[in-house]
Each structure stands twice: as C-alpha cells, then as structure tokens.
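Hi there,

I know you've been waiting on this one. I reran it after we fixed the sequence typo, so this is the corrected version. Both the input and the resulting structure follow.
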Amino acid sequence: MSSKLLSAYIYGFFIFLMVLALFVAGTFTIVVWIFGGDPRWSFQVVVRFFWRIFLKYTPVIGNVTIHNPENLNRLQPAIYVSSHQSSIDFVLLGSIIKNFLTISNHPISDLAIFMKTPRLVGVYYMEKNNPNAAITVFNRLSKALQNNINVFIFPEGTRNYSETLLPFQKGAFRLSVDNQVPIVPVIINGTGKIVTKGSNITKTHDFTNINVTFLSPIYPEKEESVRGLMNRVKEVMQVEVTRNFS
C-alpha cells in the first residue's frame, strides 16, 4: 500500500470513529444532562474512549508507553505542557489526561458545521495573532483551573520534530503563576516518525512505538516571574528531549 493510500485509510478511520463518537456521546450526554450532570465531562469521556481505539488499531502506531504514570492525573488541577512532534499528539494527550481543556489554532475546530462540539470535548479555538481572542480563551482556561479542571498546552505553539525545543509561548506559565497551579512537563517521542509538520502523508509503513514521559510537577515559586517559571520548565524539558530524541 502506498503512503498516500495508507494515509487516506488512517484519516478515514479517524473520521469514521469521530462520527460514531458524536452519536454515542450525544446520547450519553443527554442522559447525563437530564440527571443534572456536566455535559462537557460526559461528552469528553466518550470521545476519549474512541481516541484510544484509534491509537490502538491504527496501522503504523505501535505500543504507547507511559513513563512515570504516577505524575499523570495525580494532581488536579494541573497544567500539562508538552513537546509537540505531530498532529497525533493532540489525540494522544487527550486520550490519557482526564477532565481537561485545551486550545487549538486550527479554524476547523470552530466551524459552524461542527455545532461547537469541539468545545464539548474541551477544545477552544484561538485565532492566531488576535490578542483579544487569546485573552478570552485564557480567561476561560483560568476559570477552568479554578474549578479543578486540567489544562494541556503545547508551549512551542507548533509541531517540531527536532532535538531542540522552539521558543516557548508564555500563556501556560502565566496561567500557572496567576492561579498557583503546578506545571507537569510532558515529553512525547515517536509521533514525529509517523507524520510531521507540513505533510499529511505518513512517513512510515512500520509499527512505530510512542513514548510519553510525565516529568515531576514544577510549582511556581512565591513572587516568581512568568519568564522565570517558563525558563525553569523549558530547561528541564530540554534535558529530557535531548536524552530521548531519536
């Protein structure tokens, strides 16, 4: 099978699962809503289940190994900041981090045709180069943290399959300082071997193992600046990226 056909199959499989997930999640969410539950939580639980199916049964995705699982879903709320090699990373983190909100800069996540379902999953669209949109989204994330909802963010702001992290954006660290919430650094390794930025075509036909490492939480210190916290976290992550990159 050619790379293009394999890629078409993978994307088709994903779309099929997401359509199925929407029907199942919609039914489950209505029941939860009737009994006074949180629609976002119920919708996300179902979608996360289908994301796991995608990761398990997709050709080219091998074993997903979580390192230091004691740092995953232990603290709530927490801000997970992750390296970002591939578009797979979003589904990967969304499938293992419980009760979360995150952001996307891809317009597809806010199209009317989807009836705002990404928001029910926990995804908020943030338009690039729009300071007002950024303020609105980060206010929502801040409120979520105050309600014990986790947040995950890719601080590089784009995919980067290299052993050198790109400059970090400050948003996640400002949230941490303002709300006194710990940062959990996350290192993803392996997804960049499957598909990388600038292409929707898989780079391999082989099963590729993925490693996700959750490092120890980093707490903002008293009166620490946003930049100071950002530099501390990046330094820890860079050491791990360099050690694991292959």
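Quick highlight: The mean pLDDT is 88.

Best,
R. S.
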